[in-house]
Prior knowledge:
The protein is mainly beta. Helices cover 3% and strands 35% of the residues. A 7-stranded mixed β-sheet has the order 5-6-3-2-1-4-7, with no helix packed on it. The longest helix has 4 residues, at 3-6. The two termini are 25 Å apart.
Amino acid sequence: MAHEDVFPKGAFLKGEVEPVADFNGPKREDGSRPQQLDKDTGLPLRQVVVLDADEDAGKKDTAVTVKIAAKFQPVPPENKTPFPWTPIEFVGLTALPYVDDNGNRPRLAWSYKADDVCEPGKADVATPARPDAGKAA
Length: 137
């Protein structure tokens, strides 16, 4: 799906790209968790938290986690704003609905996955799964 369909007012990176810990597998000898692999591709999963700039987004939908399956760790674009959050765009964004029953009442929620991140407006020049993806050639 198109980035603009999910984030019509933009998405802003909060924090860093982080590996997704595999809580279903065995712990390592040092007690740490191995990195989770994508079930479809077998690629390592990483995640980013973004702020959804849509003023109509609900309280639980303002900070969104997006997982990225890629051979190399995605490199977010440089933050050229005076703000602590970096504007980003997702390449190859998919959404999977599920029922979140952790609250008082079950609700429809979304799980997001992407191929890469890039500077807004540069998705057509980004090549997923490259260490320099998102940077214009």
